[in-house]
Every structure is written in C-alpha cells, then in structure tokens.
Amino acid sequence: MVRTLTSSFTATVTAVDADGNPIPQVPPPTPTQHDAFRFIRMSRTSEYLFDSYRNMFLAFEAILSDIRPRKIKTNGRLEGEGEWFKKALRAADQHVPIASLAPTDAASAVEWIYKNMYGDERSGLMHAKQGQEYHLPQDDKSRRQLETSLDSLWTYISALVAARLGVSHQSGGFVQGGWELLTQNLFSQIKIVISDDESPRTVDTRFAPTGGSIVELVPGPVVMAEPFLGTVLGTHTLGRGAPRAIRKIGAMDADGVTLAISALCGTLELGTSVKRFEALVGFRNISATGPRTHFSA
User: Using one digit for the tens of pLDDT, what is the confidence trace for 67-92?
Assistant: First the structure.
C-alpha cells in the first residue's frame, strides 16, 4: 500500500521603508494567453507518461513556432519539418541556451536534440511501424529514458516561457533530503496493521469501527525505494489469534487513529498453510509545482 502525497511551499515577501511602511509594488503583468500553456497543463496533469511527454513536446513546438514560425519556400511549399525544427532551436537558443537539453559532450546540441528528443523520443511515441524503433508501453528502459528527458524538457520549457512570454514558474516543495527525514520520522511513530473488520472504507478515524480484530505487524527498516518514496515492510508470523481473513491493510498512530487505509476488494483468505504475512506500506511525495516524478502508467 503506497499513499501519494502532494506538497508545495510558498513564501510571501513584503518590502517596507525605514519607517516600516509597505512599499508599493509594481503591478503584476497582464496574463498572457498562449496555446503552449494548455499543452503544459495536459502534460502535468496526465497520469500516463507517454501522454505527458507528447503534450510537453507539443508545448515545446508551440513555443518554438512562436519564436521562429515555419516558413513557406519560393516554390510555395512549407520548409521541411526537420529543417524548421533545427532553425527554431537556434532561434530559441538566443532566449535560453539549448545546451542544457543535450549532454555536455555533444558535438552539436541542435543535432543531438533533433536526433534524440525529436527523432527517437517524440517520433517514437507517435509511430509504431514494424522494423523501426518505437516506445512500447511497460518497457522499463523506455520509461526511464522518457522520464529523464521529460524532466529536462520541462525545466527548459519553464525557462523559455519566462524569457519569451514573461510568465515565471514558481516552484517550491520537498527536496530529497527533506523527504527522507520526514519519512524516517513518520514511520518511527506509526503502526502497520491488518484487520478482518467488515466495515466499508469510511472517514471514520477508527481502523476497525465494527469491532474486527487488529493485528500490528513488526516493521522493518525504512527503505527509500526510489526518489521521494519511502517504504517499510511489516511482517507477522501467523499464530493463534491472528486473522485468517484480511480485509484491510493500513497504518495507525500511537493513539490508534487511522492514518492510511487500503480496503481490499473482497476478502483475502489466508487459510492454515500460510505461516507468515507481509505488508508493504509506503508514502510517496509529488511536488505540486516541480517536475513530475511519478506516473501511474
């Protein structure tokens, strides 16, 4: 059972003069409308990595075409897609250096971005022709590649939006060290429990409101399974008094107040042959304003 928490931090600064009077601030800029913002919103709210990447790249194209529109040649035809993309990248470089999107040892950032981000990643999500490379769902290697690329693409786009459209992106949340510290402290104060209680999942603070048995599992060490995901494996050697029918897995605080609960779809019948039961409980953090780090699919 892993619970996902969304966090954000904001700070407000007030400037005052020598007498303590607030100094009038410059009015905020008039809101800017641009199609790129719709694609960014779709990307950041998507639970699917492939959809998120596609929409973020569409946002990239929308901004690039605003900086350097695709031109019509003397023969009346539009310039080629690849030709336009490379020229648009060079134009964007005047606003925010594109070198941040490519490895430091790349001979040409433009050529690297075109080959890898455009040709491999973007086109690999748009096509699935046999005999050609494309990204297949549930391919772990592809996922890691796209997650890394999406992170750098979002970082660059947010800077480009600020430079080109005058819209700054405010970001605030936990850093890895802060989340590890919080997770360690949280798991030191909770109990991992299971129950055969039959009550439906409600907002009741009691874990077993209809009187079902509650069994506390022995917690192991806190493990940072991945960035911003802390887990603890709870174990219990089944013996006399232990529930053989499990309907809920979750966590309580020292006073017995429910902190997290996962009601199973049906009943897990353990029978008499099961001697040991394990339950993994975890808490994952997602920044509300920072780069997206987790996708359900």
Answer: 999 999 889 889 899 999 999 999 99
CA distances from 232 to 27, 41, 214, 250, 262 (A): 49, 34, 18, 12, 15
- What's the CA dihedral at 67, 68, 69, 75 to 10 degrees? 170
Of the candidates 179, 248, 171, the one whose C-alpha atom is nearest the C-alpha of residue 208 is 248
Q: What is the full DSSP assignment across 243-282?
A: -SEEEEEEEEETTSBEEEEEEEEEEEE-TTT--EEEEEEE
The single-letter DSSP state of residue 72 is B
26: its two tokens: 């410059």
CB 64 within 8 A of CB 89: yes
Type of residue at 59:
A
CA-based end-to-end distance of the chain: 17
pTM of the model: 0.72
Please tell me what DSSP assigns to residue 19. T
Backbone torsions φ then ψ of 4, nearest 5 degrees = -100, 125
